[in-house]
Amino acid sequence: MADRVLICIPTFQRPKMLKRLLDVIAGLETSADISVLVADNDVRQRAGLDLCLGLEDYRWRLTAVIAPERGIAQARNVLIEYALTSDAEFVAMIDDDEWPEKHWIDQLLKTAHATGADIVQGSVLFGTHADIRRPTGPVAMAQGAGNLLIRRSVLEEMTAPWFDPQFGLSGGEDRELFIRLKRAGKRFAWSDEARAHSAVPATRAGLAWLLRRSYSTGNSDMRVLMKHHPSQIIAEMLKILASLLLSPLLAVILAPSPNRRAIPLKKLFRAAGKLSALFGVRYNEYAVIHGE
Fold first, then answer.
1. pLDDT one-digit tens code per residue, 262-281
2. Domain span including residue 169
3. Do 166 and 110 have their domain in common?
4. More confident: 271 or 257
5. Do 19 and 163 share a structural domain?
6. What are the residues whose beta carbons fall under 8 Å from the beta carbon of 123, sequence distance 6 or more?
Protein backbone atom coordinates (compact mmCIF):
# COMPACT_ATOMS: atom_id res chain seq x y z
CA MET A 1 0.00 0.00 0.00
CA ALA A 2 1.28 3.46 -0.89
CA ASP A 3 2.42 5.78 1.89
CA ARG A 4 -0.06 8.59 2.48
CA VAL A 5 1.73 11.94 2.62
CA LEU A 6 0.27 15.39 3.24
CA ILE A 7 2.52 18.17 1.92
CA CYS A 8 2.08 21.25 4.13
CA ILE A 9 2.99 24.75 2.91
CA PRO A 10 2.85 27.96 4.97
CA THR A 11 2.64 31.10 2.85
CA PHE A 12 2.43 34.87 3.35
CA GLN A 13 2.12 37.41 0.53
CA ARG A 14 4.28 35.45 -1.94
CA PRO A 15 1.79 34.14 -4.53
CA LYS A 16 4.36 33.96 -7.36
CA MET A 17 6.66 31.77 -5.29
CA LEU A 18 3.73 29.68 -4.08
CA LYS A 19 2.58 29.14 -7.67
CA ARG A 20 6.06 27.97 -8.67
CA LEU A 21 6.12 25.54 -5.75
CA LEU A 22 2.65 24.14 -6.48
CA ASP A 23 3.54 23.70 -10.16
CA VAL A 24 6.66 21.71 -9.22
CA ILE A 25 4.75 19.59 -6.69
CA ALA A 26 2.21 18.79 -9.41
CA GLY A 27 5.08 17.28 -11.42
CA LEU A 28 6.49 15.06 -8.67
CA GLU A 29 7.36 11.51 -9.64
CA THR A 30 6.25 9.39 -6.70
CA SER A 31 4.45 6.21 -5.74
CA ALA A 32 3.04 7.85 -2.61
CA ASP A 33 -0.57 8.91 -2.12
CA ILE A 34 -0.16 12.71 -2.08
CA SER A 35 -2.37 15.52 -0.87
CA VAL A 36 -1.43 19.18 -0.43
CA LEU A 37 -2.42 21.69 2.25
CA VAL A 38 -1.65 25.42 2.09
CA ALA A 39 -2.03 27.75 5.09
CA ASP A 40 -2.24 31.41 4.05
CA ASN A 41 -1.08 33.61 6.93
CA ASP A 42 -2.47 36.78 5.35
CA VAL A 43 -5.99 37.18 6.72
CA ARG A 44 -6.64 40.36 4.69
CA GLN A 45 -5.36 39.97 1.12
CA ARG A 46 -5.49 36.13 0.99
CA ALA A 47 -3.45 35.94 -2.21
CA GLY A 48 -2.31 32.40 -1.42
CA LEU A 49 -5.82 31.20 -0.66
CA ASP A 50 -7.21 32.77 -3.83
CA LEU A 51 -4.43 31.21 -5.91
CA CYS A 52 -5.26 27.73 -4.61
CA LEU A 53 -8.99 28.19 -5.10
CA GLY A 54 -8.33 29.11 -8.72
CA LEU A 55 -6.28 26.01 -9.52
CA GLU A 56 -8.82 23.79 -11.23
CA ASP A 57 -7.94 20.17 -12.04
CA TYR A 58 -4.83 20.24 -9.85
CA ARG A 59 -3.10 16.86 -9.93
CA TRP A 60 -3.27 16.21 -6.16
CA ARG A 61 -5.98 16.84 -3.59
CA LEU A 62 -5.41 20.50 -2.74
CA THR A 63 -6.83 22.28 0.31
CA ALA A 64 -6.20 25.88 1.33
CA VAL A 65 -7.00 27.43 4.70
CA ILE A 66 -6.42 30.72 6.50
CA ALA A 67 -4.05 30.86 9.47
CA PRO A 68 -5.50 34.00 11.09
CA GLU A 69 -2.87 34.69 13.75
CA ARG A 70 0.28 36.25 12.29
CA GLY A 71 3.51 34.29 12.60
CA ILE A 72 5.36 31.38 11.02
CA ALA A 73 4.87 29.21 14.12
CA GLN A 74 1.17 29.98 14.09
CA ALA A 75 0.86 29.06 10.40
CA ARG A 76 2.72 25.80 10.96
CA ASN A 77 0.43 24.97 13.88
CA VAL A 78 -2.65 25.45 11.71
CA LEU A 79 -1.13 23.09 9.15
CA ILE A 80 -0.54 20.40 11.77
CA GLU A 81 -4.00 20.85 13.26
CA TYR A 82 -5.55 20.17 9.86
CA ALA A 83 -3.06 17.40 9.09
CA LEU A 84 -4.20 15.45 12.14
CA THR A 85 -7.75 15.45 10.81
CA SER A 86 -6.55 13.81 7.57
CA ASP A 87 -5.60 10.19 6.91
CA ALA A 88 -1.94 11.06 6.23
CA GLU A 89 0.73 8.78 7.71
CA PHE A 90 3.46 11.34 7.08
CA VAL A 91 3.48 15.14 7.08
CA ALA A 92 5.95 16.83 4.72
CA MET A 93 6.71 20.51 5.25
CA ILE A 94 8.21 22.83 2.66
CA ASP A 95 8.34 26.63 2.58
CA ASP A 96 6.81 28.76 -0.15
CA ASP A 97 10.20 30.07 -1.32
CA GLU A 98 11.44 26.54 -2.04
CA TRP A 99 10.77 23.98 -4.74
CA PRO A 100 11.71 20.27 -4.63
CA GLU A 101 13.30 17.93 -7.13
CA LYS A 102 11.00 15.41 -8.78
CA HIS A 103 11.85 12.42 -6.53
CA TRP A 104 11.74 14.52 -3.34
CA ILE A 105 8.95 12.70 -1.52
CA ASP A 106 10.13 9.22 -2.42
CA GLN A 107 13.64 10.02 -1.20
CA LEU A 108 12.33 11.33 2.13
CA LEU A 109 10.22 8.20 2.54
CA LYS A 110 13.09 5.94 1.52
CA THR A 111 15.30 7.39 4.26
CA ALA A 112 12.50 7.26 6.83
CA HIS A 113 11.91 3.56 6.17
CA ALA A 114 15.61 2.68 5.94
CA THR A 115 16.58 4.40 9.20
CA GLY A 116 13.36 4.14 11.17
CA ALA A 117 13.68 7.87 11.86
CA ASP A 118 10.72 9.86 13.14
CA ILE A 119 11.85 13.07 11.45
CA VAL A 120 13.76 13.28 8.14
CA GLN A 121 15.40 16.48 6.88
CA GLY A 122 16.22 17.01 3.22
CA SER A 123 18.99 19.17 1.79
CA VAL A 124 18.28 22.75 0.67
CA LEU A 125 20.32 24.15 -2.21
CA PHE A 126 20.75 27.88 -2.74
CA GLY A 127 23.31 27.56 -5.51
CA THR A 128 25.94 29.14 -3.24
CA HIS A 129 28.32 28.14 -0.45
CA ALA A 130 25.32 28.46 1.90
CA ASP A 131 23.76 25.16 0.73
CA ILE A 132 22.39 23.13 3.64
CA ARG A 133 23.52 19.53 3.12
CA ARG A 134 24.47 16.48 5.17
CA PRO A 135 25.31 12.88 4.22
CA THR A 136 22.29 10.60 4.09
CA GLY A 137 21.71 8.71 7.33
CA PRO A 138 20.95 9.25 11.02
CA VAL A 139 21.77 12.68 12.48
CA ALA A 140 21.60 14.11 15.99
CA MET A 141 18.96 16.69 15.08
CA ALA A 142 17.24 18.35 12.14
CA GLN A 143 18.10 21.91 11.12
CA GLY A 144 14.92 23.52 9.86
CA ALA A 145 11.23 22.99 9.11
CA GLY A 146 11.62 23.64 5.38
CA ASN A 147 12.06 20.32 3.54
CA LEU A 148 11.03 18.06 6.40
CA LEU A 149 9.13 14.78 6.80
CA ILE A 150 7.49 13.91 10.13
CA ARG A 151 5.66 10.73 11.06
CA ARG A 152 2.06 11.44 12.01
CA SER A 153 2.46 9.45 15.24
CA VAL A 154 5.06 11.96 16.46
CA LEU A 155 2.60 14.82 16.15
CA GLU A 156 -0.25 12.84 17.70
CA GLU A 157 1.82 12.24 20.84
CA MET A 158 2.28 15.99 21.35
CA THR A 159 -0.12 18.59 22.66
CA ALA A 160 -0.83 21.86 20.85
CA PRO A 161 0.83 24.18 20.13
CA TRP A 162 3.39 22.06 18.33
CA PHE A 163 5.48 25.10 17.39
CA ASP A 164 5.95 27.68 20.15
CA PRO A 165 4.05 30.89 19.18
CA GLN A 166 6.66 32.97 21.04
CA PHE A 167 8.94 32.36 18.06
CA GLY A 168 6.27 33.26 15.50
CA LEU A 169 7.95 36.35 14.02
CA SER A 170 11.51 35.79 15.16
CA GLY A 171 12.17 32.32 13.79
CA GLY A 172 13.72 29.54 15.83
CA GLU A 173 10.36 27.80 16.23
CA ASP A 174 11.67 24.74 14.40
CA ARG A 175 14.82 24.42 16.51
CA GLU A 176 12.74 24.74 19.67
CA LEU A 177 10.46 21.93 18.47
CA PHE A 178 13.39 19.68 17.57
CA ILE A 179 14.86 20.04 21.05
CA ARG A 180 11.59 18.88 22.58
CA LEU A 181 11.39 15.96 20.17
CA LYS A 182 14.96 14.92 20.91
CA ARG A 183 14.20 15.00 24.63
CA ALA A 184 11.22 12.76 23.95
CA GLY A 185 13.54 10.20 22.37
CA LYS A 186 12.58 10.79 18.74
CA ARG A 187 15.07 9.85 16.04
CA PHE A 188 16.32 12.12 13.26
CA ALA A 189 17.81 11.38 9.85
CA TRP A 190 19.02 13.33 6.81
CA SER A 191 18.35 12.60 3.15
CA ASP A 192 20.76 14.39 0.86
CA GLU A 193 18.87 12.96 -2.16
CA ALA A 194 15.61 14.63 -1.04
CA ARG A 195 16.65 18.01 -2.33
CA ALA A 196 14.78 21.28 -2.46
CA HIS A 197 16.01 24.47 -4.08
CA SER A 198 15.57 28.01 -2.79
CA ALA A 199 15.97 31.30 -4.58
CA VAL A 200 17.89 34.19 -3.04
CA PRO A 201 15.91 37.45 -3.49
CA ALA A 202 17.84 40.65 -4.12
CA THR A 203 17.02 41.78 -0.58
CA ARG A 204 19.03 38.80 0.72
CA ALA A 205 21.98 39.07 -1.65
CA GLY A 206 24.25 41.47 0.23
CA LEU A 207 26.45 41.47 3.30
CA ALA A 208 23.98 43.65 5.18
CA TRP A 209 21.32 40.94 5.06
CA LEU A 210 23.82 38.22 6.03
CA LEU A 211 24.73 40.21 9.13
CA ARG A 212 21.08 40.83 10.04
CA ARG A 213 20.44 37.11 9.56
CA SER A 214 23.35 36.24 11.83
CA TYR A 215 22.03 38.64 14.47
CA SER A 216 18.55 37.11 14.15
CA THR A 217 19.85 33.55 14.41
CA GLY A 218 21.89 34.40 17.48
CA ASN A 219 18.90 36.10 19.07
CA SER A 220 16.51 33.18 18.53
CA ASP A 221 19.12 30.53 19.41
CA MET A 222 19.78 32.22 22.75
CA ARG A 223 16.07 32.42 23.50
CA VAL A 224 15.78 28.68 22.83
CA LEU A 225 18.80 28.05 25.06
CA MET A 226 17.29 30.17 27.85
CA LYS A 227 14.07 28.16 27.64
CA HIS A 228 15.54 24.65 27.56
CA HIS A 229 19.13 24.83 28.85
CA PRO A 230 19.39 27.70 31.38
CA SER A 231 22.33 25.96 33.08
CA GLN A 232 24.41 26.58 29.93
CA ILE A 233 23.93 30.34 29.87
CA ILE A 234 27.15 31.19 31.75
CA ALA A 235 29.24 29.09 29.36
CA GLU A 236 27.48 30.71 26.43
CA MET A 237 28.19 34.18 27.83
CA LEU A 238 31.90 33.38 27.81
CA LYS A 239 31.64 32.43 24.12
CA ILE A 240 29.78 35.67 23.43
CA LEU A 241 32.49 37.69 25.14
CA ALA A 242 35.21 35.94 23.14
CA SER A 243 33.38 36.67 19.87
CA LEU A 244 32.82 40.31 20.76
CA LEU A 245 36.53 40.74 21.54
CA LEU A 246 38.12 38.70 18.75
CA SER A 247 35.77 39.06 15.77
CA PRO A 248 36.38 42.81 15.15
CA LEU A 249 40.15 42.19 15.17
CA LEU A 250 39.83 39.32 12.71
CA ALA A 251 37.59 41.43 10.48
CA VAL A 252 40.28 44.12 10.31
CA ILE A 253 43.00 41.57 9.55
CA LEU A 254 40.89 39.99 6.80
CA ALA A 255 39.65 43.33 5.39
CA PRO A 256 41.51 42.89 2.06
CA SER A 257 39.45 39.74 1.41
CA PRO A 258 35.72 40.61 1.48
CA ASN A 259 34.58 36.97 1.46
CA ARG A 260 36.82 35.96 4.35
CA ARG A 261 36.07 39.17 6.25
CA ALA A 262 32.39 38.23 6.31
CA ILE A 263 33.09 35.18 8.51
CA PRO A 264 34.19 37.06 11.66
CA LEU A 265 31.60 39.75 11.03
CA LYS A 266 28.83 37.14 11.00
CA LYS A 267 30.18 35.70 14.27
CA LEU A 268 30.23 39.19 15.74
CA PHE A 269 26.61 39.89 14.80
CA ARG A 270 25.50 36.45 15.97
CA ALA A 271 27.11 37.12 19.35
CA ALA A 272 25.40 40.51 19.47
CA GLY A 273 22.06 38.83 18.79
CA LYS A 274 22.63 36.38 21.63
CA LEU A 275 23.60 39.21 23.98
CA SER A 276 20.48 41.18 23.11
CA ALA A 277 18.31 38.14 23.90
CA LEU A 278 19.84 38.04 27.37
CA PHE A 279 18.48 41.55 27.88
CA GLY A 280 15.01 40.57 26.72
CA VAL A 281 15.22 41.83 23.13
CA ARG A 282 13.29 39.82 20.54
CA TYR A 283 14.32 40.38 16.91
CA ASN A 284 11.37 39.71 14.60
CA GLU A 285 13.04 38.78 11.34
CA TYR A 286 9.81 37.48 9.78
CA ALA A 287 8.09 40.84 10.08
CA VAL A 288 9.81 41.64 6.74
CA ILE A 289 8.78 39.88 3.52
CA HIS A 290 11.44 38.78 1.02
CA GLY A 291 10.26 37.88 -2.48
CA GLU A 292 6.75 37.80 -3.95
1. 888 889 999 999 999 899 88
2. 4-200
3. yes
4. 271
5. yes
6. 131, 132, 133, 134, 147, 190, 191, 192, 194, 195, 196
